[in-house]
Design goal:
Layout lengths: L1 H24 L9 E2 L1 H5 L11 E4 L2 E4 L4 H4 L14 H6 L16 H18 L2 E5 H4 L25
Parallel strand pairs: 1-4
Antiparallel strand pairs: 2-3, 3-4
The structure holds protoporphyrin IX containing FE.
Protoporphyrin IX containing FE (HEM) binds next to α4 and α5.
Length: about 160
C-alpha cells in the first residue's frame, strides 16, 4: 500500500516537473505584423459597403469598422480613414491639410491630447491590424530596429490572411 502511495507520489512529482520543463523550454512565437503602404491603407476608406474600415494613428493601423457611425461613408469622421490621420486627431481638425502623419510643429497640448485619444479611444476600443510602412521602416527602406508593436493585451492582432 505504502509502495503504491509512493509510486503515485513519484508519478505526480515527475509529471509536474516534466510540465515545468516544457513550460521553461516553450517560448511563444512572436506574431508577424502586417505592414501597410499608403496605397494599401487607402483601400479601407469606408467607401465600399461591407468592407473593413482602417485608419492609422501614430503609425498604428486600427480596424475602426465597429465605429461605422463615425467613420463610414458619409459619416462625420470619414475623412480620417484610409490613411494615417495623426495630425488631425492631435488638433481635432478635419482640415484636409491635417490629414497626415506629420506632427511637425504641434504644441505640447496637442501632443498630449493625441496621446490621450490614442490610448483612451483607439487602443482601448479598436483592434490593431498592422503598422504603416513609415513606422516599421526607415526612410531608406531598411528595417527600423527600434520598432516595437503596441502592447494591446485585450485584443489579439487580427490577421486577415
Ligand atoms: C462640433 C464639433 C464636434 C462635436 C460636437 C463632436 C462630438 C463628438 C461626439 C459626441 C463624439 C462621441 C464621443 C463618445 O464616444 O461618446 C465624438 C468622438 C470623436 N470625435 Fe468629435 N466632435 C466634433 C468635432 C470633431 C473634430 C473636428 C474631430 C477631428 C478629428 C473629431 C474627432 C473625434 C474622434 C476621433 C472621436 C472618437 C470616435 C471613436 O470613438 O472612434 N471631432 N465627437
Amino acid at each position: 500500500m505504502a509502495t503504491t502511495r509512493t509510486c503515485v507520489l513519484l508519478f505526480v512529482l515527475s509529471a509536474t516537473l516534466a510540465e515545468e520543463d516544457v513550460k521553461l523550454k516553450y517560448k511563444a512565437p512572436t506574431k508577424p505584423v502586417r505592414l501597410f503602404t499608403e496605397e494599401e491603407l487607402r483601400r479601407y476608406d469606408g467607401s465600399q459597403e461591407g468592407q473593413p474600415i482602417y485608419m492609422a494613428v501614430k503609425g498604428v493601423v486600427f480596424d475602426v469598422t465597429k465605429g461605422k457611425e463615425f467613420y463610414g461613408k458619409d459619416a462625420p469622421y470619414n475623412a480620417l480613414v484610409g490613411k494615417d490621420s495623426t495630425r488631425a486627431v492631435a488638433k481635432m481638425s478635419l482640415d484636409p491639410a491635417d490629414l497626415t502623419s506629420d506632427t511637425t510643429g504641434l504644441t505640447e497640448e496637442q501632443l498630449k491630447s493625441l496621446d490621450s485619444v490614442f490610448e483612451g479611444t483607439y487602443k482601448s476600443k479598436y483592434p490593431i491590424v498592422g503598422y504603416t510602412a513609415s513606422r516599421i521602416l526607415n526612410e531608406d527602406g531598411s528595417p527600423n530596429k527600434d520598432f516595437r508593436p503596441e502592447d494591446q493585451p485585450h485584443f489579439r492582432i487580427k490577421d486577415e490572411f
